[in-house]
Amino acid sequence: MEPARVLLDTDVIVNWLVRETESVTGKELWKAPYAIIKLAESGDVSARISLTTLMELRFLFRRKKSYSHNKIEEDLATLTSVVDVLIPDEISLVKANLLQEKHPLDPFDAIHLSLCIGMESAILISRDKDFIKVARHHVAAMNPEEFIMSA
Q1: What CATH number does residue 33 fall under?
Q2: Which end of the chain is more exposed for a tag (fewer CB within 10 A), N or C?
Q3: Cα–Cα–Cα angle for 115, 70, 67, rounded to 5 degrees
Q4: How far apart, in whole angstroms, are the C-alpha atoms of residue 117 and residue 121?
Q5: Structural domain of residue 50, as residue ranges?
Q6: Spatial contact of 72 and 62, defined as CB atoms under 8 Å apart
């Protein structure tokens, strides 16, 4: 049986890399993304991210988290050793533009959704409820905990 194909949104990767917890409830947001990464390491899941996700992560960690250059590149190397990085091509970007025309998506989400649509039988994994709602018109989409429960 072929492993499930997933496209991980940037917020899911951030949860895992910074071991994020929800400030109000104390919920450990990083645990389900960590479990997904472990499934990818074992080959039970084929996990992918967009090149734009790498760029978003680098920007976020520099500006908001004040990570050192070495820490950022070390974390991104760990990530890319486990997940495949999809590079949006011209067709993906045109599809993303059309998706953004139809739906209230930011440019990065439009690109992620376009890439996910282009992947056969892929599941988009995000924490952004509005993004999931839009994505479900085109692909399977869920949050990390829902995916782990279904895996």
Answers
A1: 3.40.50.1010
A2: N
A3: 80
A4: 8
A5: 4-150
A6: yes
